[in-house]
Design brief:
Helix content is 44%, strand content 17%. The chain has helices spanning 11-18, 61-78, 101-133; strands at residues 21-24, 28-34, 49-53, 86-92. Strands 1-2-4-3 form a four-stranded mixed sheet, with helices on both faces. A hairpin with a 3-residue loop joins strand 1 (21-24) and strand 2 (28-34). Helix 2 (61-78) crosses helix 3. The longest helix has 33 residues, at 101-133. The protein starts with 10 loop residues before the first helix and ends with a helix.
């Protein structure tokens, strides 16, 4: 299990992350948002935060919890490669119920890298527009 400082817990945090960059495949969708890069608050950021969403469309309670547990286990390995100011939400799709652990691991790695790249480009465009306005 991830430490409490690396878990998304509040609805507002999930909502903000879901509005970020997205990448998805048949098994899952990954949402990534880069939080404030203000140097004054950089020391307050403990690390990347992760949330897992597994709706009823994935399966019954046992299946949902199994899929979520697999995803949390996979994320532990991926989260070490992310910068400290990133929020990540992994949303399981119904096909994830029948997927193997290794297939979920590949999907999480692929989608996280792709979504993080999109988020970085989006952040760079935002900064460029911000600097052009001043």
């Amino acid at each position: 299990m991830l430490p409490a400082s690396q878990r998304l817990r509040h609805r507002s945090d999930f909502r903000a992350a879901i509005r970020g960059a997205t990448s998805g495949i048949k098994l899952l969708v990954v949402h990534v948002v880069i939080r404030s890069t203000d140097p004054a608050t950089a020391d307050l950021i403990n690390g990347p935060r992760v949330g897992v969403v597994c709706s009823k469309s994935v399966g019954n309670s046992v299946v949902r919890h199994t899929v979520a547990r697999h995803l949390r286990h996979v994320v532990k390995e991926v989260v070490d490669d992310l910068p400290r100011n990133v929020d990540l939400v992994i949303r399981a799709r119904p096909a994830a119920a029948d997927a193997s652990h290794s297939a979920l691991a590949e999907a999480v790695t692929y989608c996280t890298n792709k979504a993080y790249g999109k988020a970085r480009r989006r952040e760079a465009r935002r900064r460029k527009a911000e600097n052009a306005g001043t």
